[in-house]
Design brief:
Strands 7, 8, 9, 10, 11, 12, 13 and 14 form an 8-stranded mixed β-sheet that branches. The longest helix is centred in the N-terminal third of the chain and has 18 residues. The chain is globular and about 60 Å long. The protein has 9 helices and 14 strands. The chain folds into 2 domains: 121 residues, 2-Layer Sandwich (D-amino Acid Aminotransferase, Chain A, domain 1); 163 residues, D-amino Acid Aminotransferase, subunit A, domain 2 (D-amino Acid Aminotransferase, Chain A, domain 2, Alpha-Beta Barrel), CATH 3.20.10.10. A hairpin with a 2-residue loop joins β1 and β2. With 294 residues, it is of the alpha+beta class. The protein binds pyridoxal-5'-phosphate (PLP). The site of pyridoxal-5'-phosphate has 13 residues, from α7. The site of pyridoxal-5'-phosphate (PLP) has 13 residues, from α7.
């Protein structure tokens, strides 16, 4: 079941729409140019997680694209409407996981008003399975160097735009080559991010546990899950570090994971076909920390 709620000033809390019927104009710039932004967040037991962090990143993406956004209050109420609507139409149990998408486009050509909606649908079983079974990952070139974001703001490097065709093509390329997912590298050889995730690695040396992730200045999306995990990990005694990282750092680590709001923490089992060690105890410990994030 999929629920849609359009943010519409004429409807307090949003307007529920039939997901089995056409709802967008064919001239919407989101469809014709991929001109828009989005967020994906997880709802557990009917409660959306990290809502403020996602609204903050949505606002930051909107600034990068010079897009008008509905108010935070309108988003929060539309999310509640969508989750209530889902619960009214399907059984929501304690372990029901829902993917909540916040979508904004530049709107219909010539109308000068954004189109904004919330979509709620179940998290696919395969996504949940990857948390358990882990991932075979390929390094693929992104084609930019790691300093391009500062030189070329029009590339929208740190924004979560609707132009994800390249990211999805990278995942299809991985699947066609006996892998599950991808870690992008820059043309100057730095580790960047996954097409839908942040890269995380752990090192344990002389009893000191350190969590590392690529630095934001390399043009990656600031991950809300990585950021929240770093906060709880620090409180639990972990040291924290930010790149630059190169592929050799990942081969040398005691654990490598891809982390994101919907899939949460998925251990990496191999890189470019070479097995790596991702210690199950570390995966367990970090997964428990991820579960504490709300
Ligand atoms: N990087 C990219 C390119 C993504 O698309 C995502 C999430 O979809 C992430 C990182 C992880 O972000 P978050 O943890 O906020 O879901």
């Amino acid at each position: 079941m999929t629920v849609l709620v359009f943010l519409d000033p004429a409807h307090d809390g949003g307007r529920v729409a039939d997901a089995s019927m056409p709802q967008l104009m064919a001239t919407d710039l989101g469809a014709t140019r991929g001109d828009g932004i989005f967020e994906s967040l997880l709802a557990l037991n009917g409660e959306a997680r990290k809502v403020q962090a996602h609204l903050d990143r949505l606002a930051s993406s909107a600034r990068a694209l010079d897009l008008d956004l509905p108010s935070e209050d309108a988003w929060r109420r539309a999310i509640t409407t969508a989750l209530d609507e889902y619960a009214a139409g399907a059984r929501v149990q304690a372990d029901t996981e829902l993917a909540v998408k916040l979508m904004v486009t530049r709107g219909v050509e010539g109308a000068d008003a954004p189109t904004a909606w919330v979509q709620v649908a179940p998290v696919p079983a395969k996504t949940r399975q990857q948390r358990r079974d882990g991932l075979a990952v390929l390094f693929l070139e992104r084609g930019y160097d790691s300093t391009v974001a500062q030189r070329a703001p029009w590339l929208l490097m740190g924004a979560k735009t609707l132009s994800y065709a390249v990211n999805m093509a990278a995942v299809r390329y991985a699947r066609a080559h006996d892998a599950d997912d991808v870690i992008f590298t820059s043309s100057d050889g730095k580790v960047l991010e996954g097409p839908t995730s942040t890269v995380l690695l752990a090192k344990v040396r002389d009893g000191v546990k350190t969590l590392l992730t690529p630095q934001l200045e390399s043009g990656i999306l600031p991950g809300t899950s990585q950021s929240a995990l770093f906060t709880v990990a620090k409180a639990a005694g972990w040291e924290l570090g930010y790149g630059p990282l190169v592929p050799a750092d990942l081969y040398d680590a005691d654990g490598v994971w891809l982390i994101s709001s919907i899939r949460l923490l998925a251990p990496v089992n191999s890189l470019d076909g070479q097995s790596i060690t991702t210690t199950p105890e570390l995966t367990r410990e970090l997964s428990e920390l991820v579960a504490k994030i709300s």
